[in-house]
TrEMBL record:
Residues 3-248 form the ABC transporter domain. GO terms for molecular function: ATP binding; ATP hydrolysis activity. InterPro entries: AAA+_ATPase (IPR003593), ABC_Ni/Peptide_Import (IPR050388), ABC_transporter-like_ATP-bd (IPR003439), ABC_transporter-like_CS (IPR017871), P-loop_NTPase (IPR027417). Keywords: ATP-binding, Cell membrane, Membrane, Nucleotide-binding, Transport. It is found in: Cell membrane. This is ABC transporter ATP-binding protein. Belongs to the ABC transporter superfamily. Pfam families: ABC_tran (PF00005). Its main location: membrane. It comes from Labedella endophytica. Residues 250-265 have a biased composition (Low complexity). Residues 250-281 are annotated as: Disordered.
């Protein structure tokens, strides 16, 4: 099991912001974590990484590759990052150092985790650039973050997240800052990578159309609580809560008309009336 979250509760200054959330991500499984702004989805991801902000207190259990994160010493949790779990943020500049070349940053995990020589690590950096389909990988590894496009920078951030060979990849709104055409390309890239590498994926988003493109199963958060958990198809075609119905209608009105979702990806319009009027928890 790549990730096992049980009864995760997060409090900040005495206020509960994530309340008893439980879910898992099996090896090679694609799970979407979806909710509106302030639902607690990004805090949940930070708890998995052991990177909660000052003042936040977590309880429950978070196991990454069988290792408990909640309550573990910072040194032990730090060893998991990069090697066992990788993270891709919405803004790639938060992952990449602006004053170091892309290649040197991609080479660092190879030297740290695999003890490669400088030359071999440089070759690994080129392999990673090629893996994420960066153009002219031998040349682009010598460039700095400000010298490449936003889409290329996000590809470099994905390569960095994968550099340590993690079994779990967390993607926190990784396409939100990109235009719709580049969004589609990045989603295709995630789709290919998790299939080729058999990596578990926790994909965080507020956009149901994006979620349907990349995930098989969905966990829905509202006000810090889990309100739905099931297949994405069930979520789209048989929503049980008012929140998910709003997300479906929003995606139907906007995102399903963009390159992130083809017409074949649009939801089934023949929803059972009983499902449309299901009671929200």
């Amino acid at each position: 099991m790549s990730l096992d979250v049980r009864d995760l509760t997060i409090r900040i200054d005495g206020r509960t912001v994530v309340d008893g959330v439980s879910f898992e991500v099996a090896d090679g499984e694609r799970v979407g974590l979806i909710g509106e702004s302030g639902s607690g989805k990004s805090l949940t991801a930070l708890a998995v990484l052991g990177l909660l902000p000052d003042g936040a207190v977590a309880s429950g259990s978070v196991r990454v590759d069988g290792t408990e994160v909640i309550g573990a010493p910072d040194r032990d949790v730090a060893r998991l990052r990069g090697r066992n779990v990788g993270i891709v943020f919405q803004e790639p500049r938060s992952s990449l150092n602006p004053i170091r070349s892309i290649g040197r940053q991609l080479a660092d995990p190879a030297r740290r985790f695999d003890r490669l020589t400088r030359r071999d690590a440089a070759s690994r950096a080129i392999e990673l650039a090629r893996l994420v389909s960066l153009p002219e990988p031998e040349q682009i590894v010598g460039r700095y973050p400000h010298q490449v496009s936003g889409g290329q920078l996000q590809r470099a951030a994905i390569a960095l997240a994968l550099a340590g060979g993690p079994r779990l990849l967390i993607a926190d709104e990784p396409t939100t800052a990109l235009d719709v055409t580049i969004q589609a390309e990045i989603l295709d890239l995630f789709d290919r990578l998790v299939s080729e590498l058999d990596t578990g994926l926790l994909f965080i988003t507020h956009d149901l159309a994006v979620l349907r493109r990349i995930a098989d199963r969905a966990v829905v958060l509202q006000d810090g609580r889990l309100v739905e958990d099931g297949s994405v198809d069930d979520l789209v075609n048989r929503p049980r809560t008012e929140l998910v119905r709003r997300l479906v209608e929003s995606a139907r009105a906007t995102s399903w008309s963009t390159p992130t979702a083809t017409p074949a990806d649009s939801p089934d319009d023949t929803v059972d009336p009983d499902d449309r009027n299901g009671d929200a928890p």
